[in-house]
Amino acid sequence: MNPSFTLFRQRLVQREAMLGTFVKLPTTQAIEIFGATGMDFVVIDQEHAPLDRAQVDLMVLAGRASNIAPLVRLADASEASVLSALDCGASGILVPHVTSVEKARSIVAACRYIGGARGFASMTRAGLWGSRGRVEHMRTQDAELACILMIEDLEAVERTMEIASVEGVDAVFIGRGDLTAAFGDHPDAAQLAAEAAIRIAEATGAAGKALAILATSPADAATFRALGATVFLVGSDHNFLRSSATNVLRDHAAIKRDQLRAGS
């Protein structure tokens, strides 16, 4: 039986519901913990966290060792960034700020060997350290690696169907944070971003591709599930630490109150 981290793309294109979270702390332990909980995947966040190639390499290893699919959100869409994440053994990539069909095609080409332009290397974790033959390695990687593009710029909203329709694009992730920020201090920014997100979801469905979002609540997830979303990110290691610490302080506030009373 194949390890589950090799099946992420298969589950993605088959529209199986999956749940994961962002990982921003430069540590392997958080990923091991998430793997132990039964989450389906993690997104190692190079875009918004201080994670260099060496750290990503260790975090991808932790994901594979914990049998949780390690995806990498790249800091940019360069060929070198794509290659680095894939050779480390990532199950797929999320690429931010995709605004054109041309950019989508170049990203797909960087992901794929056969019919693409990915630099060849088999003496890597992705290649099981040379244990597979050249053609087997290329076919296996092309079949297992998920290419997910983020639509989060206003100029990309109306191009979503064209971008999503590019052959080799597996899914679209709606970047609602950046969409909302794009409306600046407009009093209706949240509503305008919500409307844009719905248009992206509908266009992605029309293109026949999977849809991913960062869900802010179970109700939010249900809303986008009805719009076709099957891949849901919930929070991040930062969020979980902060919310848990906040709850502990709230639940134990009586200790501090009692101390103050005793000292008065």
Structural write-up:
The protein has an eight-stranded parallel barrel, surrounded by seven helices. It has a single domain (4-236), classed as Phosphoenolpyruvate-binding domains (TIM Barrel, Alpha-Beta Barrel), CATH 3.20.20.60. By secondary structure, the chain is α/β, with parallel strands linked by helices. Helix 2 packs parallel to helix 3, helix 4 (79-88) packs parallel to helix 5 (101-111) and helix 9 (176-182) crosses helix 10 (189-206). 49% of the residues lie in helices and 16% in strands. It contains 13 helices and eight strands. The chain starts with 7 loop residues before the first helix and ends with a helix. The model has no long low-confidence stretch (mean pLDDT 95). Helix 11 (218-226) links the parallel strand 7 (210-214) and strand 8 (229-236).
Order of helices and strands: HEHEHEHEHHEHHEHHEHEHH
Distance between the termini: 66 Å
SS summary, helix count: 13
Number of strands: 8
**How many separate domains make up the residues?**
1
Class derived from helix and strand content: alpha/beta
What does the largest sheet look like?
8 strands, parallel, barrel
CATH fold group: TIM Barrel
Blueprint of the fold:
Elements: H1 8-13, E1 18-23, H2 29-37, E2 41-45, H3 53-65, E3 69-73, H4 79-88, E4 92-95, H5 101-111, H6 134-144, E5 146-151, H7 154-157, H8 160-164, E6 171-174, H9 176-182, H10 189-206, E7 210-214, H11 218-226, E8 229-236, H12 237-251, H13 253-263
Parallel strand pairs: 1-2, 1-8, 2-3, 3-4, 4-5, 5-6, 6-7, 7-8
Helix pairs in contact: 2-3, 4-5, 9-10
